[in-house]
Amino acid sequence: SCFGTKAGLLTIGTDGTWIGNNAGLNNTLGDGNVAVGAYAMHGASGATMTNNAVVGSYSLTSGTSAAANAFLGNLTGFVATTTQEAVMVGYRSGLDCTTGCSTATYVGAYTGGGITTGTGSTLIGANQTGLSATLTNEIRISDGTGELGFRSDSSRNTYLGNGSIGKNVYLYHIGASNNAGFRTDSSGNAFIFTGA
Fold it and tell me: Kindly report the CA angle at 55 between 144 and 132, in degrees rounded to 5?
């Protein structure tokens, strides 16, 4: 099904739905795609993208063989070419992905900014930008400004808080009268406290 000027114009793949001007224009052989929004899944010339669900103008516009992705938000995965099995939700999430970001999950506007070839990371929270181009297999949860509250790196070292001096990390036991926590002082020295 095609709705919109040049939507799915060159597509000979099956079971696709293209809604929006130039949606899926160059995706010639890909099957099972859904693209909603102007230039959504526009694709590089001769693209063979399959089984993608893309909602948002200019999302996945450079794809060549991207497959099994779910993108929601304008400019999501904008330059992704071969990304597979990724989920990106939020305006400009995964914007810098080129040949990477497969099996990644990015939730939040601008999240994943800087990652081009890294794969397998889960990032939750808006504005996680300035990341390593090769960030791989990390889990990060942040607030809406991108300040980390939790991080688990690819070796599964786990960090609570963002590492800022003077920040508290509390450990609670539900129902206990004396909880404990730890923090760093102004010199960066860590200490444990009770009665939090």
Answer: 45
Rounded to whole angstroms, the Cα distance separating 112 from 131 reads: 7
Give the separation between CA 179 and CA 194, rounded to whole angstroms.
6
Among all chains, which residue has been given the structure tokens 């103008």? 57
pLDDT one-digit tens code per residue, 168-180? 555 555 555 565 6
Q: Average pLDDT, stretch 128-146?
A: 95
SS3 sequence, 1-67? Answer: CEECCCCCCCCCCCCCEEECCCCCCCECCCCCCEEECCCCCCCCCCECCECCEEECCCCCCCCCCCE
Tokens read off for 39: 């230039």
Rounded Cα gap, residues 26 and 32, in angstroms: 15
pLDDT of residue 30: 81
**61 CB burial (10 A radius; 0-12, 13-18, 19+):** buried
pTM of the model: 0.84
Structure tokens at 52: 């993608």
**Is 152 in a helix, a strand, or coil?**
strand
pLDDT of 183 reads 63
Smallest Cα–Cα separation from 163: which of 192, 139, 188, 180? 188
Q: What is the token pair recorded at 177?
A: 């009268």
pLDDT at 2: 82
> Which one has a higher pLDDT value, 112 or 157?
112
